[in-house]
TrEMBL record:
Record field: catalytic activity: alpha-D-glucose 6-phosphate = beta-D-fructose 6-phosphate
InterPro entries: G6P_Isomerase, G6P_Isomerase_C, Phosphoglucose_isomerase_CS, SIS_dom_sf, SIS_PGI_1, SIS_PGI_2
Pathway: Carbohydrate biosynthesis; gluconeogenesis; Carbohydrate degradation; glycolysis; D-glyceraldehyde 3-phosphate and glycerone phosphate from D-glucose: step 2/4
Protein name: Glucose-6-phosphate isomerase
Entry keyword set: Cytoplasm, Gluconeogenesis, Glycolysis, Isomerase
PANTHER family: GLUCOSE-6-PHOSPHATE ISOMERASE
Domain of life the protein comes from: Bacteria
Gene that encodes it: pgi
Subcellular localization(s) per the UniProt record: Cytoplasm
Length: 545
């Protein structure tokens, strides 16, 4: 057994959680519950009162955090200590949104000047593309950006661009290509004009198969439209930490935007990986995004644990995963612009905390990262919310909603908000058998039928949710929101004593994919794999069933 599950606090939490009354009762007992269990910071408001907690639960959870040396671990991350111990790297995405006058040391040198230089290079480029000064090979301004990248080099830019649609520069559009499935790039290139298209190739390693293949195909398409090799520099730029490889590939040295080893892929949208965002929303808005994240960094680094928003959210997730057997967490965005956020948080959290050994290699004897999923409200209410209300699994939920819409139209936003709040209320209070029966009092059914229907209408309630509000979705509030979830992920990893910053499972996929590719292209059928894999490779080689 690990020290964590042996600890007095862990055992106390096990005993405590099993005897806590229903949330209905907790609300009835304490009229101050909402005031006491809500927190506001960085333009975000978190109501966490609809959780299976009372003061004792919180005290135990914060004790657990203290025993995990959380405060020191937070400081170690911000200080640039090598906390990614399997890849021997510092974890400094927070430096990307630091202030110019800060000094942050990684591998013996202050990295803030490089960060600022890259921001300046981005600003110059964004300005020249947006103003039309940057010309394509026939002298026309750029109208379309095709962003090529995958994983962390794709999802952040895509989701943030989507979320900031109201801030887009008129006359510029962006298309994202990630999948190596040719359908993705072929469909995106249909209807584009090579003369006015700019390709942004994003790959930290400059070695990811999907991205290299898509970039080569983009180059072929570009040349096939009548452009020449010399024209490439006007239409292809790269973001990478591997400048040598990018130059060897044929990227013009002036068109390479650097990033660094100390930025993890899924934490990289704040670096030049965010170039597609900056091209769409302009550099001022990109800097506002960084500023929102910086505000959350400050809050996270300097706020006592019981008022610390990422810590509160993380400890609640620990509570459900480790003490209530919950294996899943749902993110429900009541804002169409934020419809992609669940997928982004899924990558962030599942790639970070899908781990089974502690930092020192001991097998864990407790659950780590849950399955993260979700979608936009109210759509989900007509689908999977049924399981949230009446299924057997306990799935804590985060409801996220801006108070003001970018598109105020009639009663739409009032209806959206009432659905959001109505769902959290229903999840919390549920419906008792007596209430269900009372609702049927005027029906023509006989008593046994009423009782049967009432039984089906019962909802146990006591289903936890957080509600996160902001005035309006802006670059700043979005930056704070994303940083909030980054730090929430970090805190959970700290409690579980895992490395939230490597991804060996994903690496295995890359490795095996390359191995199988060789066998597909070999002169003879595959024989050395397991029988299923051999047969599948050979069926593919045949090309038909
Ligand atoms: O940016 P690249 O080096 O091309 O890597 C793209 C992605 O590759 C893998 O999937 C990693 O697990 C991700 O974290 C990374 O973002």
């Amino acid at each position: 057994m690990t020290k964590l599950t042996q600890s007095t606090t862990w055992k106390a939490l096990q005993a405590h959680t099993s005897q806590l009354p229903h949330m209905r009762e907790l609300f009835a007992q304490n009229p101050q519950r909402f005031e006491q269990m809500s927190v506001k910071s960085c333009g975000l408001f978190l109501d966490y009162s609809k959780n299976r907690i009372n003061d004792d639960t919180l005290e135990l959870l914060f004790s657990l955090a203290k025993e995990a040396n959380l405060t020191d671990k937070i400081a170690a991350m911000f200080n640039g200590d090598v906390i990614n111990n399997t890849e021997h790297r510092a974890v400094l995405h927070t430096a990307l949104r630091s202030k110019a006058e800060q000094e942050i040391i990684a591998e013996g040198a202050n990295i803030v000047p490089e960060v600022q230089q890259t921001l300046a290079k981005m600003a110059e480029f964004v300005e020249s593309v947006q103003s039309g000064q940057w010309k394509g090979y026939t002298g026309k301004a750029i109208t379309d950006v095709v962003s090529i990248g995958i994983g962390g080099s794709f999802l952040g830019p895509k989701i943030v661009s989507q979320a900031l649609r109201p801030y887009w520069h008129a006359g510029l559009n962006c298309h994202f290509v990630a999948n190596v499935d040719a359908t993705s790039i072929c469909e995106k290139l249909k209807g584009l004009n090579a003369e006015t298209t700019l390709f942004v190739m994003s790959s930290k390693s400059f070695g990811t198969q999907e991205t290299l293949t898509n970039t080569l195909s983009a180059k072929e398409w570009f040349l096939a439209q009548g452009a020449t090799q010399q024209d490439i520099a006007k239409h292809f730029v790269a973001v990478t930490s591997n400048v040598t490889k990018a130059t060897e590939f044929g990227m013009d040295a002036n068109n390479i935007f650097p990033m660094w080893d100390w930025v993890g892929g899924r934490y990289s949208l704040w670096s030049a990986i965010g170039l597609p965002i900056a091209l769409l929303v302009g550099m001022d808005n990109f800097k506002a995004l960084l500023d929102g994240a910086h505000q959350m960094d400050e809050h996270f680094a300097n706020t006592p644990l019981p008022q610390n928003m990422p810590v509160i959210m993380a400890m609640l997730s620990v509570l459900y995963g480790n003490f209530h057997g919950s294996q899943s967490h749902v993110i429900l965005t009541y804002d169409h612009y934020l419809r992609g956020l669940p997928a982004y948080f899924q990558q962030l959290d599942m790639e970070s905390n899908g781990k089974s050994v502690t930092l020192d290699g001991t097998d864990v004897d407790y659950s780590t990262g849950p399955v993260i999923w979700g979608g936009e409200g109210t759509n989900g209410q007509h689908a999977y919310h049924q399981l949230l209300h009446q299924g057997t699994a306990l799935i804590p939920a985060d409801f996220i909603m801006p108070l003001q819409s970018h598109n105020p139209l009639g009663e739409h936003h009032d209806q959206l908000a009432s659905n959001c709040f109505g769902q959290t209320q229903a999840l919390m209070q549920g419906r008792t058998f007596e209430e269900a029966l009372a609702e049927l009092s005027n029906s023509k059914l006989d008593e046994p039928q009423k009782a049967l229907i009432a039984k089906h209408k019962v909802m146990s309630g006591n289903k936890p949710s957080n509600t996160l509000l902001m005035d309006k979705l802006t670059p700043t509030t979005l930056g704070a929101l994303i940083a909030l979830y980054e730090h929430r992920t970090f805190v959970q990893g700290a409690i579980w004593q895992i490395n939230s910053f490597d991804q060996w499972g994903v690496e295995l996929g890359k490795q095996l994919g390359n191995d199988v590719l060789e066998r597909i292209g070999a002169d003879q059928d595959a024989t050395e794999l397991d029988s299923s894999s051999n047969a599948l490779v050979n069926l593919y080689r045949q090309g038909k069933l």
